[in-house]
Amino acid sequence: MQVDxxxxxxxxxxxxxxxxxxxSIPKHFxxxxxxxxxxxxxxxxxxxxxxxxxxxxxxxxxxxxxLPD
Length: 69
Known about the structure:
This protein is mostly beta strands. The protein has one domain (6-56). It contains no helices and five strands. It has strands at 6-10, 14-18, 28-33, 38-48, 51-56. Strand 4 and strand 5 (51-56) form a beta hairpin. It is globular, with a radius of gyration of 11 Å. It starts with 5 loop residues before the first strand and ends in a 13-residue tail after the last strand.
């Protein structure tokens, strides 16, 4: 199942991701970053309502410090 989300914060090792309210977030999922089309296996490390912190199971090589505008 594919679900749209918003990436609020992105680093080489993880991200803060916001999903639609009421969605059940699994412990592990694949996050595809739209601007690059790259997919990363993740593990949820924390959750606060519809916002989750995830750790990439493999660090992103040559990751930019911030998302481009």
